[in-house]
Write a structure and sequence with these properties.
The structure is a single chain. By secondary structure, this protein is mostly beta strands. The chain has one domain: YedD-like protein (Lipocalin, Beta Barrel). It contains one helix and eight strands; from the N terminus they run αββββββββ. Strands 1-2-3-4-5-6-7-8 form an eight-stranded antiparallel β-barrel. The two termini are about 20 Å apart. The relative contact order is 0.21.
């Protein structure tokens, strides 16, 4: 099972991206980026400038998998001792199975 899940998995939302790399040797890394922006207007609706903020986080650790290709659990133990459990299920749409797409705790990730 480790061979099947080894690789980089990416989840995109409107303002964030999460990238999880599960290596064949059992090591794990994750990077998270968020960026938000907007504009300031005065009481007349005139654009008075813009703002933006960004955040980046990274973590590392070890991982293992329990289950089969269809569904199961990926257990991650970060270097700081925090344990994360990802319940996974292969993405099935209109009867078609997408083996490079999985729901991790309900969020859709695609294999890079």
């Amino acid at each position: 099972m480790i061979q099947h899940f080894a690789g980089t998995w990416i989840n995109y939302t409107k303002n964030t991206s999460t990238q999880i790399t599960l290596s064949k040797d059992g090591s794990f890394s994750e990077s998270y980026e968020a960026s938000y922006s907007g504009n300031f207007s005065n009481q007349y609706g005139d654009n008075m400038g813009g703002w933006g903020t960004a955040r980046q986080d990274q973590s590392q650790g070890r991982w293992t998998v329990r289950g089969d290709r269809q569904q199961g659990t990926i257990i991650i133990i970060k270097n700081n001792g925090e344990q994360i459990t990802l319940e996974y299920k292969v993405h099935v749409e209109k009867g078609e199975t997408f083996w490079n797409e999985y729901l991790f705790n309900g969020d859709l990730y695609g294999k890079k």
